[in-house]
Amino acid sequence: TMIWAILTPELSLHWDGARLSEGPGAPRTDAPGADPVEAAWRTDYASIFNPARLMVGAMLKEMPKKYWKNMPETALVRSLVAGAQTREAEMVERSRKSSAEGAPAVGDNLLTAWEAVRAEARACTRCPLYKCGTQTVFGEGPLDAKIMFVGEQPGDQEDLAGRPFVGPAGQLLDRALGEAGVDRGAAYVTNAVKHFKFERRGKRRIHQKPDGPEIMACRWWIEQERSLIRPPVVVALGATAARSIFERVVTIGSLRGRAHPLADGGEAWVTVHPSFLLRVRDDREAEYAKFVEDLRKIGERAKALA
Ligand code: URA
């Protein structure tokens, strides 16, 4: 799902998300200097580095030194190894204190990692949509949420506010969640695509559907959100979200109303997008009732899994 290139002195290869093309050889200076994802990777590496299990010999065996110059995390190794003893002593002290106080020492690393990913996403250029919107609209909600709702992409109001589902579709979602007995505040809410795609008509910005490569490029971020939060239930609101979660084009009708197991052990549920309910002309009330019923079922399932 990444846009990439391989440069060698003889030949280059370029993948633009849809097509692979060949080009001439290139010098090292043609490669971009910085990888925007490296900072997040370094944060992640530093947070999973366990000083209490330091085994320099095994590390060197798995990562021979000759490869270190190409690996961003290796720049951290020296200081992590040097600080291992102090950090281990701090960990022991922290856990002694927290068990004495009865407080669970959870969440710090998760929050740090999530904030790092969100900060990286703000500078995302993985697809051309970053040129379009005002800002990246990242997901929000508790990091121990049992349900993750995934929409399509931020709309006009979300793009300006920098928060998902705050416009008309969000208000309808809130109302339906309330009627279904599902607490939005306890859920993590995000979008398959994190930038607003629109066409300008006069003063108005008219929503445009994201295309396949845009959805696939943005899967990088939703995968990060899912792997950090690990919600037992992921809800695709509409076809774009479902395409992102299942990595293929699907129809809502064929998947709606039941659980679909996911590789990470969670399950996906599929329902309509709330903006469909704002547009639909026939049987609007019946469609809305069906949506509320889907949410009620999903809420009960999440409770059972929790
Ligand atoms: N529609 C979406 O899919 N997401 C939002 O955040 C708002 C509208």
Account of the 3D structure:
Helix 1 (38-48) runs antiparallel to helix 5 and helix 8 (212-229) packs across helix 9. Strand 9 (260-261) and strand 10 form a beta hairpin. The protein has helices at residues 38-48, 56-62, 74-82, 84-101, 108-122, 156-161, 168-180, 212-229, 239-246, 252-255, 274-279, 284-305; strands spanning 4-7, 11-15, 20-24, 147-151, 188-191, 198-201, 204-207, 233-237, 260-261, 267-271. It is built from twelve helices and ten strands. The strands form three sheets. Strands 5-4-8-10-9 form a five-stranded mixed β-sheet. It has a three-stranded antiparallel β-sheet with strand order 1-2-3, with no helix packed on it. A two-stranded antiparallel ribbon has the order 6-7. Helices cover 45% and strands 14% of the residues. By secondary structure, the chain is α/β, with parallel strands linked by helices. 28% of the residues are buried. The model is unreliable at 102-106 (pLDDT under 50). Uracil binds next to helix 7.
Give the key terms.
single chain; 306 residues; alpha/beta; three-stranded antiparallel β-sheet; 10 strands; 14% strand; globular; binds uracil
